[in-house]
Amino acid sequence: MTTTISTIKTYQLCYNLKEMRSLDVETVKQIMLPRSGKEKKSVFLVLVDTRPPSASLPIIPSSTIPLPRSGHLLRCISNAGSPTSQMHPLCYVELGKWAAVTNFTFEETQDLSSADIRISFFKGDHDNGSPFDGLGGVLAHAFAPNDGRVHFDLEERWTNGIRADWIDPASVAVHKIGHLLGLGHNSEHDAVMFPYIDVGTQKVNLHPYDIEGIQSHYGIH
Questions:
Q1: Is 221 labelled a binding residue?
Q2: Residue 144 belongs to what domain range?
Q3: Does the pLDDT value for residue 212 go beyond 60?
Q4: Record's PANTHER family (predicted)?
């Protein structure tokens, strides 16, 4: 129930609606609005954190950021039985987009224990207190900085690029990497850190609001 209320409040905040603990008439009207000229389903990109979500701020407060202002980070993709073959090149590209506007560099490692970023696929309850909900709804979740975990829902319909009723993993990856580097959700619809994405669309290019948020933490590249 707490997760549902939090999700509703985040949605209302993002769309400049009155913040409620339940679905009111105005929120339902917003949910039902067609986007990009036709009906589209929206799915939620979750930041797993102990702090309450705030879509009015582009970043998590700087006092909570444990990462150095620059550095070399190792990443590892686990779960050999999952769609990892497509995730390796995608994550390399999306990490590069954040590297281009910060002083971070990234390298792949096969050693999960030494990795700063650990990307995995799971379904349902996977022993972290945030079970996945199957097809639709929550696509993935990332943990706050210094944890390094990103979990994708194995039961989603993942496909590279734009395809009706499927999810583009690159769009989700660039969003989740933003969380790992310390960014929270923001209320700019075109930003990669906006907490919702329409099914069958792609959003992989950093918005000026995304760049402003990350550089406010780590400085200009």
A1: no
A2: 43-218
A3: yes
A4: MATRIX METALLOPROTEINASE, METALLOENDOPROTEINASE 2-MMP-LIKE
